[in-house]
């Protein structure tokens, strides 16, 4: 099976605890005003990737000490079959990796971002999320800023789903960020570009743009502008 993918990155350090593999699904029809990832909206954009190739990335990340997988987008649930296969495979592969590390280390967790609210999830969505340890749910609402870590607006909820999710995320449910929670990665695969990973505080993207400009880097098509 294939998924349309916007990007992958390891080590991702700004969307979930620890060093993680990030996989961003392509395609989102929810069109939140103020979304910083408009480049992920087009369902025909990004690139097709085999789930087996994504799982190879996960295996490599586990070998490199990954503490978790973060799946974001775009809207991962708009490719529910591919998401189900990815999470099932990621769950299967993490146990041997943990045994190889030291036999008792923490199990890497699986975190999924979705713009849907729990009440909107269909049986197909719920099946796709069967192996997720935690979800961050809800549309981005620009008018409801928050400082809660890993959430873009105050309506979004971090929801542990499993005992591992509880253990890993309970300390962060009410934890607030202090800024600086963004990671910038130079990406030249489609011409000169910078990818910014993480959830910005209000006004933080403007500061990033200003800082880049002062360093001589002018963003021509930032993904957060219509
Ligand atoms: S914030 Fe998330 S759910 Fe909303 S439009 Fe952007 S990618 Fe889609």
Describe this entry's structure for a reader.
The chain is of the alpha/beta class. It is built from five helices and nine strands, in the order βββαβαβαββαββα. The strands form two sheets. A seven-stranded mixed β-sheet has the order 3-1-2-4-5-6-7. Iron/sulfur cluster (SF4) binds next to loops.
List how many beta strands DSSP finds: 9
Mean pLDDT: 91
Contiguous runs where pLDDT drops below 50 for at least 5 residues:
none
Query: What is the CA–CA distance across the termini?
Result: 32 Å
Helix and strand element order: EEEHEHEHEEHEEH
Number of helical segments? 5
Biggest pleated sheet: 7 strands, mixed
**What's the helical proportion of residues?**
25-40%
Helices and strands: which structural class? alpha/beta
The share of residues in extended strands comes to 15-25%
Query: Could you tell me which ligands this complex binds, including any ions or cofactors?
Result: iron/sulfur cluster
What's the alpha carbon Rg, rounded to whole Å? 17 Å
Number of domains: 1
Shape: globular
Question: Major sheet: order of its strands?
Answer: 3-1-2-4-5-6-7
GO molecular function: 4 iron, 4 sulfur cluster binding; metal ion binding; ribonucleoside-diphosphate reductase activity, thioredoxin disulfide as acceptor
Cofactor: [4Fe-4S] cluster
Keywords: 4Fe-4S, Iron, Iron-sulfur, Metal-binding, S-adenosyl-L-methionine
Organism: Streptomyces pini
């Amino acid at each position: 099976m294939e998924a349309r993918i916007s990007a992958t990155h390891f080590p991702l350090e700004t969307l979930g605890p620890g060093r993680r593999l990030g996989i961003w699904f392509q395609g989102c029809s929810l069109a939140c005003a103020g979304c910083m990832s408009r480049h992920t909206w087009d369902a025909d954009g990004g690139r097709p990737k085999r789930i087996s190739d994504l799982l190879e990335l996960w295996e490599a990340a586990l070998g490199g000490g990954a503490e978790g997988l973060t799946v974001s987008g775009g809207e991962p649930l708009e490719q529910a079959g591919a998401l189900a296969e990815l999470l099932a495979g990621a769950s299967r592969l993490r146990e041997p990796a943990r045994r190889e590390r030291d036999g008792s280390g923490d199990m890497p967790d699986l975190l999924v971002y979705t713009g849907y609210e729990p009440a909107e999830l269909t049986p197909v969505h719920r099946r796709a999320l069967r192996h997720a340890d935690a979800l961050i749910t809800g549309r981005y609402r620009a008018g409801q800023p928050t400082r809660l870590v890993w959430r873009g607006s105050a309506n979004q909820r971090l929801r542990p789903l499993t005992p591992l999710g509880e253990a890993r995320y309970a300390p962060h449910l009410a934890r607030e960020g202090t800024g600086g929670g963004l990671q910038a990665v130079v990406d030249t695969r489609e011409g000169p570009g910078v990818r910014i990973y993480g959830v910005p505080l209000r006004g933080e993207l403007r500061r990033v743009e200003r800082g880049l400009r002062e360093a001589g880097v002018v963003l021509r098509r930032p993904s957060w502008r219509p």
